[in-house]
Design goal:
about 350 residues, mainly alpha, 14 helices, globular
């Protein structure tokens, strides 16, 4: 219990400080912060439909948060979950529409295609870091923009829905839809899949030899190399799995909610996944909890805006402040984080 309390202290403090500053901003606008936050919670948790919508918003965040967490545990900062999510959405949509497989295989094949598409997209910066020593932060950021254009090309060209009035794909067949788990809402079985993968990532990182290798590389690269661990291979493996998890975020968004590919499908889930991972203390259980928190903010923002007249952008400020305080606290605990993204001593030798 003491270990859990210590691990959760700074994330909880970060949330409280962010909400406090958000309350000050609301007061500056002449509104009641208690009333505003009350409507935010009501919009996110006030009834069955609100809770379901919060969990719908949290589902892709679980996957992108896990993606960032897994890569970070290997000492790689994956900023490319947004692009990997898009490629995963593209892969899942393509497989669902164009692959001729038995109906009972359409869903698993589509999910696998999304995982592979996102994983291969993530493996590119992993390979470049492992073999060329190139900064993964820059590469993953740039690949986000490439992914946006790739999806735009397909939805306005080869995969455009006939007769071609709108830049979107045709609807995926119902055999590829994720089942609803709460009647009358949009909540789908992708949430269960996300929880399963959170357990899988936890087991992989903390109870397998490969997971130990990944964590050792992230903790002390020189010691890992001295112990005979293939550091470059672990970079590629971590980014492949990380990209695959982000690709699953896009897959469940397509197969569970949108049912067709279109521009803007990512909705910032990839970038919010970074905040989720940091707020979750880079632990799968923490990621699930942080995802629900961000789902509450996303779902309740509109209700707060309508009821109190507070701009929804205040929620964006609160999210940014949460990230700032979490990173600040993590840096105070471990000053080595300031070197994140820089070429560390011995990296060229390891690569």
């Amino acid at each position: 219990m003491k270990k859990i309390a210590r691990a959760s202290f700074f994330p909880v403090l970060a949330v409280m400080l962010a909400l406090l500053i958000g309350a000050v901003l609301i007061l500056i606008q002449g509104k009641n912060p208690v009333l505003a936050y009350g409507f935010l919670l009501q919009g996110a948790l006030g009834n069955k439909g609100a809770i379901a919508e919060t969990l719908v918003k949290a589902t892709p965040l679980i996957f992108t948060g896990l993606a960032v967490t897994l890569a970070y545990r290997c000492g790689v900062f994956n900023i490319g979950a947004e692009g990997q999510l898009l490629l995963g959405a593209l892969g899942a949509t393509w497989a669902a529409i164009y692959l001729e497989v038995p109906a009972f295989l359409v869903l698993p094949v589509s999910l696998l295609a999304g995982f592979l598409a996102g994983g291969l997209w993530g493996a590119i910066p992993g390979y470049l870091k492992a073999k060329r020593g190139l900064n993964e932060i820059i590469n993953t950021i740039l690949l986000n923009y490439v992914a946006i254009q790739v999806v735009s090309y397909f939805v306005t060209g080869p995969m455009k829905e006939p007769p071609g009035y709108f830049p979107q794909s045709a609807q995926v067949p119902q055999a590829a839809w994720l089942d609803k788990i709460l009647i009358g809402t949009r909540l789908h079985s992708g949430l269960i899949l996300g929880l399963v993968f959170a357990a899988v990532v936890y087991y992989f990182l903390f109870h397998t030899t490969y997971g130990f290798s990944v964590r050792l590389v992230g903790t002390n690269r020189d010691a890992a190399e001295y112990g005979g661990i293939n550091v470059p291979r672990n970079f590629v493996l971590a980014m492949l799995l990380s990209g695959g998890l982000a690709g699953l975020a896009g897959s469940v968004e397509i197969l569970g909610v949108r049912h067709r590919l279109m521009n803007g499908i990512a909705s910032g889930y990839g970038f919010d996944g970074i905040a989720v991972a940091l707020l979750g203390n880079l632990h799968p259980v923490g990621v699930v909890i942080a995802s629900v928190f961000f789902g509450v903010l996303r779902t309740g923002a509109n209700t707060m805006q309508r009821a109190v007249g507070i701009p929804a952008s205040v929620v964006g400020i609160i999210q940014a402040l949460v990230i700032f305080f979490v990173v600040a606290a993590a840096t105070l605990k471990d000053p080595s984080l300031l070197r994140l993204g820089r070429r560390e001593k011995g990296e060229d030798k390891a690569c």
